[in-house]
Design goal:
The chain is mostly helical and 291 residues long. It has 12 helices and no strands. It is globular.
Length: 291
């Protein structure tokens, strides 16, 4: 690839990465402003979307690309476009199959968690402001596909996602657990407005384990392989996403723990396989050695 083409591809790749990164950071800042500092951000909903999705993260991403202009050619990894498209496909698989499973589940078969399992949830208050952390998982899902520059971690990520989703959906379909969501107050408050959108889209019986927590932790562990500094931020973000599932009353505490456990076990199992290729079938061994 010529230098000009490398710089252009590197610029596009880094812009997309930083746009998603700052989109997540903006939501985290909004949570601090609204949830912790009590700032009133109640104004026109359409304008809110434009401010937090475009007006803030776009110029910040452009600024970071300008700062890195001398090293953009190094970011033009030859496989980044196929992997970026793979990330979009995997996101569609996650979200599409999640809602499909929700539609296939008979709400009459969904059961509440036994009282001895949800005793600690009673002490957690319902706080709609955590919804800004809750929705971070959607852009967070895509970050590793734009950050990693090695096939191995991304291949493990895709395999891990497929394994985790298959296990989670098997539980959703055979032993559906539901959460008695609290009613939302009427009013123009920003967190309530966003929670209304979440309640309108997300079925309340895809609970145990939490795929929100599972995909967040798996993405964070994958990013930790590329950068310790980014990985620490990613792990903290995954933890905040887990907290958000509990404080928004979308999930029980057990759901979040189960999601993290599923992601952790999947990640370390695949990492062990990658480090011990002699114990797996020949074709899979070839993929690892090529990487």
């Amino acid at each position: 690839m010529n230098t000009g083409g490398s710089i252009a591809q590197g610029a596009v790749r880094r812009f997309l990465f930083y746009y998603i990164f700052f989109l997540i950071v903006v939501q985290q800042v909004v949570f601090v402003l609204v949830g912790l500092l009590g700032l009133d951000l109640t104004f026109d909903p359409v304008l809110r979307v434009w401010v937090f999705v475009c007006f803030v993260p776009v110029p910040l991403a452009a600024w970071r690309v300008a700062v890195e202009r001398r090293v953009l050619a190094e970011a033009a990894w030859k496989n980044w476009i196929p992997w970026a498209l793979t990330g979009v496909v995997m996101f569609g698989l996650w979200s599409g199959s999640y809602f499909a499973v929700g539609l296939l589940t008979d709400p009459a078969n969904a059961r509440l968690l036994p009282p001895e399992w949800e005793r600690f949830d009673r002490f957690v208050p319902f706080d709609p402001s955590f919804v800004f952390l809750y929705i971070c998982v959607y852009p967070f899902f895509l970050l590793p596909f734009l950050r990693m520059s090695s096939n191995g971690p991304l291949l493990r990520l895709v395999i891990g996602l497929v394994i985790m989703l298959a296990i989670s959906y098997a539980f959703f379909l055979t032993m559906p657990v539901t959460y008695p969501r609290p009613s939302l107050p009427d009013g123009p408050e920003f967190p309530v407005w966003v929670m209304q959108i979440v309640h309108g889209r997300d079925p309340p019986w895809n609970c145990l384990p939490s795929t929100h927590c599972a995909v967040a932790l798996l993405a964070a562990l994958t990013m930790y392989e590329s950068s310790r500094k980014l990985g620490i931020w990613a792990l903290m973000t995954a933890f905040l996403i887990a907290l958000s599932t509990i404080f928004t009353k979308q999930h029980y505490i057990v759901d979040a723990i189960a999601g993290f456990a599923l992601a952790g076990l999947t990640y370390w199992l695949l990492l062990w396989i990658w480090r011990n290729p002699e114990k797996i079938p020949k074709r899979a061994r070839q993929l690892i050695r090529e990487d």
